[in-house]
């Protein structure tokens, strides 16, 4: 029986959350931990598409929210020695990855977000969350720009839509760098194994990374498995991956497609073409989840020379300007 379309507040693992239901779909967002969308499910089929923290993993989730659900990263990934040159100035970010001496993942994925509203109707169930960055905010302490970020998640017959809006409310040209460390559960069906799955991602070239996980400026040839990854698909666990790729949209779309060959079901993650880079991380080929991460900018982009801002994704917003991008996670049922 299809459940009623609704949006409501209820806990997830003991933490206040906003739940969305539409048809057979269900999703949960935790506002207090980075507006992380920790669950996206098909309740009729018993499918769970994201890596969710179990009830007994909530402490682990609180300690490392970036490896569950859909966390938002800004500025994303790594910055060498915490240096962030921008528009004639050099800002210093905290070094929070001692092993590499880099800054990692920015300031939005673990802070509390404001719930602007939630609701449902015949077309969708939705929640809107916001972050206002200014004096007193952790982001502003290191990158003193004034802006707002709005995340809107909605469930409909077309699956889960994510809308990101950034508004430069200040007086200076500001960096506009975002990514999503999306953790996809493999298998997402209850009776399949990870070996039943192949993934396709619209990657282009692979960037060489040094021992500090920073781009060297060189490209590496794709392995045969990586060629399969961008074409017909390959196991997302063919090797341990923490790899940085250019995005190369196919047929006008920039996406990941995960197929369960036992059931014939697919999950599509269509991310929009302004994400010009993919990070793919599979936690040492763990056979439980992998992260196809759409990323606007090249890792360490402000410190990389000899590449255009358009290619590196080192883009910004003038005062009053808006940036918007939508992404969608949706299933394709097995063809009968």
Annotation keywords:
single chain, 336 residues, mainly beta, Beta-galactosidase, Chain A, domain 5, eight-stranded antiparallel beta sheet, six-stranded antiparallel beta sheet, 27 strands, globular, isomerase activity, Aldose 1-epimerase, Aldose_1/G6P_1-epimerase, carbohydrate binding, GH-type_carb-bd
What does this structure look like?
The protein is mostly beta strands and 336 residues long. The chain has one domain: Beta-galactosidase, Chain A, domain 5. The protein has four helices and 27 strands. It has helices at residues 58-63, 138-142, 224-230, 309-312; strands spanning 6-12, 15-22, 25-30, 36-42, 47-48, 72-73, 78-80, 83-86, 89-92, 102-104, 114-120, 125-133, 147-156, 159-168, 174-175, 179-180, 184-185, 197-201, 203-209, 215-220, 242-247, 255-260, 266-270, 277-281, 289-295, 316-317, 322-332. Strands 11-12-13-14-27-23-22-18 form an eight-stranded antiparallel β-sheet. A six-stranded antiparallel β-sheet has the order 17-25-24-21-19-20, with no helix packed on it. A hairpin with a 4-residue loop joins strand 4 (36-42) and strand 5 (47-48). The model has no long low-confidence stretch (mean pLDDT 96).
